[in-house]
Design goal:
By secondary structure, this protein is mainly beta. The protein contains 1 helix and 7 strands; from the N terminus they run αβββββββ. It has a domain of 81 residues: Umud Fragment, subunit A (Ribbon), CATH 2.10.109.10. Strands 1-2-7-3-4-5-6 form a 7-stranded antiparallel β-sheet, with no helix packed on it. The termini are far apart.
């Protein structure tokens, strides 16, 4: 057997998972996979909201994605927030621009004034992968 390294580039991504078949040589995951137990720290204050636009596409947040929002967390610069503006929930990144707090999206910057009510902090992004033809993001093609 040769000790030389292969110069062939490798493609793909290596991931760790607890949702696959266990390897008999390793300790195995006991119990059932519970996404709420894995992703939600405060069940009484966490909600799921569906994203309705691509206004945060630069952050990888697209229409049809879902975000877990924790209402118990405090807003802080850099966090993705849900705020209520004119009775409508809006999602954006909390930024400080020229010394002023704003909710920033790819399309606009909304000043965070007393008229804007912080509703919660997004903690998890659930991004659905297409199962149909390439580029098809129609939710009917997702496994249920």
């Amino acid at each position: 057997m040769s000790n030389t390294r292969s110069t062939t580039p490798r493609r793909g991504v290596s991931v760790e998972t607890t949702a696959s078949f266990p390897n008999p040589a390793q300790d195995y995951f006991e119990g059932h996979l519970s996404l709420d137990r894995h992703l939600v720290r405060r069940p009484t204050s966490t909600f799921v909201l569906r994203v309705s636009s691509d206004a945060l596409a630069s952050m990888g947040i697209r229409a049809g994605d879902e975000v877990l929002v924790d209402r118990a967390l405090d807003p802080a610069p850099g966090r993705v927030l849900v705020v209520v503006v004119d009775s409508e929930r809006r999602l954006g990144r909390f930024d400080i621009v020229d010394g002023r707090a704003v909710l920033a999206t790819d399309l606009e910057q909304i000043p965070l004034t007393s008229d804007v009510e912080p509703w919660g902090v997004a903690t998890v992004l659930l991004h659905h992968l297409p199962l149909g033809p390439a580029g098809d993001r129609d939710r009917r093609n997702y496994a249920r």
